Amino acid sequence: MKTKIVVLCGSLRFKKLFAETELYFVLSGWIVLTPCCMYVDAQRTDTYIQHKEVFDEMHKQKIDLADAVFVINKDGYIGESTRNEIDYAKSKDKIINYLETPD
């Protein structure tokens, strides 16, 4: 039996929720892929900003590898990058689930 892979998407402002969600999936037997630089405050550095397009492309490749996408959309928040990832996942016919039911 192949272990399932899930990729987490959402705003990096929800780091605690990412960590809790990652733990939930790992304890449920999933391999979890997360955004680049998830657990450091790198998003505000010049290096991160300079390479954001590369990181976004890598995240799309993680979506390609995944069996499912889980969107962390606390209080319904879905930013532009996350919306692009959702659209990409839909174009690849990925299963998409949300923390909160989107409007």
Structural class: alpha/beta
How many β-strand runs?
Answer: 4
**Main sheet, how many strands, which sense, barrel?**
4 strands, parallel
The rounded Rg comes to: 13 Å
Question: Distance between the terminal alpha carbons, to the nearest Å?
Answer: 36 Å
**What does the oligomeric state look like here?**
single chain
Strand content: 15-25%
Going across the major beta sheet, what is the strand order?
A: 2-1-3-4
Which residue ranges are poorly predicted, with pLDDT under 50 across at least 5 consecutive positions?
none
Provide mean pLDDT, rounded: 89
Give the number of helices: 3
Please give the domain count.
1
Order of helices and strands: EHEHEHE
DSSP helix fraction: 40-55%
Gross geometry: globular
Give a summary of the structure in a few sentences:
This protein has three helices and four strands; from the N terminus they run βαβαβαβ. The protein has helices spanning 15-27, 46-65, 80-91; strands at 5-10, 31-33, 68-72, 95-98.
How is this structure best described in words?
With 103 residues, this protein is an alpha/beta fold. It has 3 helices and 4 strands, in the order E-H-E-H-E-H-E. It has one domain. A 4-stranded parallel β-sheet has the order 2-1-3-4, with helices on both faces. The model has no long low-confidence stretch (mean pLDDT 89).
